[in-house]
């Protein structure tokens, strides 16, 4: 039997061997989210569909476990929240939640990047006003915040 995958891979195998099942399961375990969630989910789905075609379908729990196993640390809160639900999620819900989580992470990266650039620009402007040509100085906290964390200044 020859199986053509959307990704361009071709799998050739006989119904009389377990090698293709093992190969696909290894691919499933090695799948990692490298770029975008939609591509990652598509890779997982192709492998899961291939397993079903050759007569070794995965359960919903195994499919979800495969999706969660390939996620990086930034998805840890998502990974730990999924099994805590009493009613298990269907795969489609996991995919939708994962897409929403990725969108949120990307939005936060843009905001954090903008804040970093604003702070860097502000620090550069402050240094230029004082004509400081030495190494960049750390910006100190405003007096009220400094007092809050370090106590009032002691005058000698």
Walkthrough of the structure:
The protein has 6 helices and 2 strands. It has a domain at 18-108. By secondary structure, it is mainly alpha-helical.
Flag low-confidence runs: 131-156
Helix content: 55-70%
| DSSP summary: helix tally | 6
Number of strands: 2
Major beta-sheet overview: 2 strands, antiparallel
The proportion of strand residues reads under 5%
Fold topology:
Blueprint: E1 2-4, E2 10-12, H1 19-30, H2 37-53, H3 60-69, H4 76-81, H5 91-129, H6 143-150
Antiparallel strand pairs: 1-2
Helix pairs in contact: 1-2
Structure characteristics:
two-stranded antiparallel sheet; 156 residues; disordered C terminus; 6 helices; 4% strand; mainly alpha
């Amino acid at each position: 039997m020859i199986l053509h995958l959307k990704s361009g891979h071709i799998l050739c195998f006989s119904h009389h061997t377990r090698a293709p099942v093992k190969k696909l399961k290894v691919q499933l375990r090695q799948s990692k989210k490298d770029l975008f969630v939609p591509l990652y989910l598509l890779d997982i789905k192709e492998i899961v569909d291939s397993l079903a075609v050759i007569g070794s379908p995965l359960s919903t729990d195994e499919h979800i476990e495969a999706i969660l196993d390939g996620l990086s640390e930034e998805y840890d809160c998502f990974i730990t929240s999924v099994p805590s639900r009493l009613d298990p999620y269907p795969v489609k819900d996991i995919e939708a939640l994962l897409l929403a989580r990725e969108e949120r992470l990307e939005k936060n990266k843009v905001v954090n990047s903008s804040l970093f650039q604003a702070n860097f620009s502000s620090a550069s402007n402050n240094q230029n006003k004082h004509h400081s040509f030495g190494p960049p100085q750390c910006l100190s906290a405003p007096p009220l915040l400094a007092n809050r964390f370090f106590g009032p200044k002691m005058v000698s």
